[in-house]
Specification:
The chain is α+β, with helices and mostly antiparallel strands and 151 residues long. It is 25% helix and 36% strand. The protein contains three helices and seven strands, in the order E-H-H-E-E-E-E-E-E-H. It has helices spanning 25-31, 35-41, 128-150, and strands spanning 14-21, 52-55, 62-69, 72-84, 88-92, 103-110, 116-123. A seven-stranded antiparallel beta sheet has the order 1-7-6-5-4-3-2, with helices on one face. Strand 2 and strand 3 (62-69) form a beta hairpin. The radius of gyration is 17 Å and the shape is globular.
């Protein structure tokens, strides 16, 4: 006699965040691909030091972001899956806090008076607690991006 354990198929958890950034669409898009600028805003918690950022901004190119929290290195990396300047950017998101197959998609829309709406969608988390933590981190990152352009 054979026994089978049926594991229900779960829908991948995802989150979407929208933020208006007070800068033109091209500048906002390019900020995500320029390692110097990216290091100024990809800071998921206020008070964290700027991370070390390296990237090869082309489809198939890779990036590395080494965040530092209380003396601990938190490496994040991924590959660019889609680059459609200045409208869409999609990349894998690999860290100790993200499962295999996790992706981030950024959609940029030009608004009046040189503003840009950024819609960030992150798909695939270990669980709802991890999704909640990432929502806080991405929200802070998008707010910091707006503050970067305001200064």
């Amino acid at each position: 006699m054979k026994y089978f354990l049926e594991v229900p198929k779960m829908t991948d958890l995802s989150l979407t965040i929208n933020e208006v950034v007070h800068a033109p669409i091209e500048k906002v898009f390019d900020a995500w691909l320029d390692p110097y600028t990216l290091s100024k805003f990809i800071i998921p918690m206020k008070g964290m030091p700027e991370p070390a950022v390296e990237n090869d901004p082309r489809v198939g190119g890779r990036f590395s972001i080494i965040m530092n929290f209380e003396g601990n290195s938190l490496p994040h990396e991924g590959s660019y899956l889609e680059i459609d300047r200045p409208h869409k950017l999609k990349f894998t998101w690999v860290s100790d806090h993200s499962p295999e197959g996790s992706t981030v998609t950024l959609v940029f829309a030009s608004l009046e008076a040189g503003k840009t709406e950024v819609q960030l969608t992150h798909v695939k988390f270990f669980d709802e607690a991890a999704m909640h933590d990432h929502k806080g981190g991405w929200t802070t990152i998008l707010e910091t991006l707006d503050e970067y352009f305001a200064s």
